[in-house]
Amino acid sequence: MSVSYKVEICIIFIITLLVFVLGVAILGYGRQTGYVLHGYMIALTAGWGLVHLINRANEPEPKLPLEYNDAACKWGVLACFGWGLIGFTLGDILAWQLAIPSLNGDMFWSNFGRIRPIHTTAVIFGFAGNALIATSFYVVQRTSRTRLASEVLPWFVLVGYNLFVFLAVTGYPMGITQSKEYAEAEWYADLILVFAWVGYLMLYMRTLARRAEPHIYVANWYYMGFIVVIAMLHVVNNLSMPIDISYAKSYSLFAGVQDAMTQWWYGHNAVGFLLTAGFLGMMYYFLPKAVNRPIFSYRLSIIGFWGITFLYLWVGSHHLHYTALPDWVQYLGMSMSIILLVPSWGTVFNGILTINGAWDKVRTDPAVRFMMVAMLFYGLTTFEGSFLAIRPVNTLSHYTDWTVGHVHAGALGWVAFMTFGAMYKMVPWIWRREGTYSLRLEAWHFWLALSGTLIYVGAMWNSGITQALMWQTYDANGNFVYAFIDTVEAMRPYYFARAIGGLLYLIGACLGAYNIYMTVRGPGMAPAPAAQRPVLQPAE
Amino acid sequence: MSTRHQKLERSGIGFAVSILFVASLGGLFEIAPLFTIENTIEKVEGIRPYTPLELAGRDIYVREGCYACHSQMIRTLRSDVERYGHFSLAAESMYDHPHQWGSKRTGPDLARVGTKYSDAWHVAHLANPRDFVKGSVMPGYAFLLDQRLDTNHLKGALTAMRRVGVPYTDAQIANAETDANRQADIMADHKQDLTESYGDSVQVRDFDGQPTQLTEMDALVAYLQMLGTLVDFDAFDVEENDR
Q: What ipTM goes with this model?
C-alpha cells in the first residue's frame, strides 16, 4: 500500500471521526427531539463511513483500472433528481398554499414559513448542488484526461454534502433554522458542509494537478470559481454562536445592518457562483459537446469569467435599496450591477454563437434545445437583474412577486433547463447507453417545462408590478387608495396561475426523471473506446 | 491578454488563488467599512437589548420563518413611511442577531407594529387570521397558545448574545428566567425590577389572555408589541444622521 494512499485514508478517517463525535455529542446532550434525531443521523452516517474506511484500510490498495471514475457521479445524478422532485413538489404545494390559504393546515410543521426554506434548500442545494457536483466530477476528468485523484474523497464529498442537505431540510419543519435567507441551516449542519466542501476543493485541485492537458479548460475555471467562492461565502455568512451543545439554536455573529449586508453579499452570490458560475461551467462543457462545435470565442470566455468573478461580489447591496444600509453602499451595488450585464451578456453570446453551424440540432435534439433556451433565459434574467438593481425600478420589484418571478426565470429557465439538457447528454454517456430512453418524452418534458416557466414568470411579473403600484396609489387628497389587504386580494388570480405553471413544470420534471430512470435500466453498450479513456500517466 | 492568461491556465493553484483574491475585493470594500465607519449606525436614544421574554418571542419569530412574508425594514420611500411610520434606522436592529429585514411583503411590514393593535387582537389574529382580516393568506398559529414557553435555555441564550456583542449585564443573565416570567405576570408585581434593569420601555402584562401559564404566544406577542417602539423620533435629527 502506497504511503499517500494510507495518509489520505487516515486524514479522511480523522475528519469523519470528528463528525461522528459531533453526532454523538448532539444525541447525548441534545434537549430537543429534532436536534437529537439529527445527532443520530449524523452519528449513523459518520459511523457507516468509519466502518467503510476501516475495511478499505485493511484491504490491499485496489489496482485502478485505466478508466474514468463515474461511480460517485452516478449517485450524484440520482441525488439531483431525487432532491429536484422533492423541491419542485414542495414549491408547488407552497404556491397552492398562497392561492388557497387553508392548505397550510395551521399545524406547526405544515405552515408556509417552515415549508418555504425546504423548497429553496432542496432546489438550490439538493437539486442544483448535486447537479454541479455530479457534472463537475464528469467534466474535470474528461477535460484533464485523468481519473479522479482519489477513490475515497468523491464519496466523502457526496455523502457529506447530502447529509448537510438532509439535516437542513428536515430541520426546518421541526423549527431548526437561522432564518437567514438561503442560509437557514443551523451551525452543526453548516459545519458538516465545511468539511465536505474542503474535501471537494482538495479533490478538484488534485485532479486538476494530475491533468494530461497543459491548459485548464474554461469549464473548470467556472467550477473552481463555484467551489472557492461558495466556501468563502458559506463560512463568513454562517459565523454564529450556539447557545451550547444542548441546543440547535445559535445567534449570528453579525447584527442588523452589517448582518443584512453580509447576508445579501452571500445571498446574491449563492446565485452568482452556485446558480450562475457553476452552471456556466456545465454550459461550457456540455453545449459544445452536444452540438460538436468549438467555443465561439476564447477572449469572450476570459472576459466573461473574470468579469463575473470580480463584479458579482459587489452587487449584493441592490437587495437593500432605500433601507437603513448607508447610501454609498447602495449606489455602489447599483452601479456594479449595471456593469455586470457586460460579462453576463458576453457569455450569453459566447454560448449562443457556439451553436452556429449546428442550429438544426436545436430542432432535432431536445437536450440541445434545453441548453439553447437555458442560455436565452440566462440572458433574460441577467438583463432583468441589472434592470431591477436600478433604484427607482427596484421600488416596483422589492418586497413583491417580481423578485420571485425574476428568481424563477433564473432557476426554472436557466439553472434547471441547463441541468436537464446536460443530464440528457451525460446519463447515456456515463451509463454507456446508445441514447436516452425516449426523445419524445424529452420533447414533452421540454414543452411542459417551457410553458410552465412562462406561465409562472408571467404571473409573477403581473402580480409584482400590480401590487407595488397599488401600494403607491394615492387619491387626489393624498390618501392611500388601497389598504394592504386589498393588494393581497388582487394577487389571487396570479397565485392560481403560478400554481398551475408550477404544476406543469413538476409534471415535466417527473417525465424527465422517468426518462432518466428508463435510460439507466435500458441495455448498455460495449466498453469505451481508447479515445474516451484517460491518458496513461508516466510512473511517478 | 490571451498569452498572459494562458500562463495562468497552466497553474491550478495559481488560478484558484487568483479567483479568491478577485472575489474577495467586493466584500472587503463594501462590508468591512460598515464595521469601521462610525456613522453607519445612528446614535439614538432608547435602543436597548431585548428582554428575555422578547428575545424568546423573537426566537419564535425566527423559528417560524416569518421573514418569508414579513419585512422589518421601512424604506425611505413616501409610500413606505406613510403606510408604516418613520423609516427604519440601522440602530433599531443593532441587537438583531440575525437581522430580520426580510425581502418579501406577502404580508405588511412589521418594523413598527408594536402597540398598533391590542394584545387580544394579536392573539386572536395569530390563532385564526381570516376571522379578522378577510382575504388574508396567512397561516394560523393557534398552537402557540398551547405550547409552554421553554425558559430553561434563556440564560444560555443571553450569554450567547453577550458573546456576539449585546451588552447584557451579569445580573440580567442571572435573572433571565425570572425576568421572563415576571414580564408576563398579570399583576405586574415586579414591573419596577424590569424597568430598572431594561429601561422604561419594557411592557409588563399578561400578553396571551391566559394568566396562569407562560406560553409561546406570550413571548411572541411581547416581541411584536415592542417592535419599533424604542426610539423617540421627536428627538431624532435626520440631517445629523445623513449617511
A: 0.95
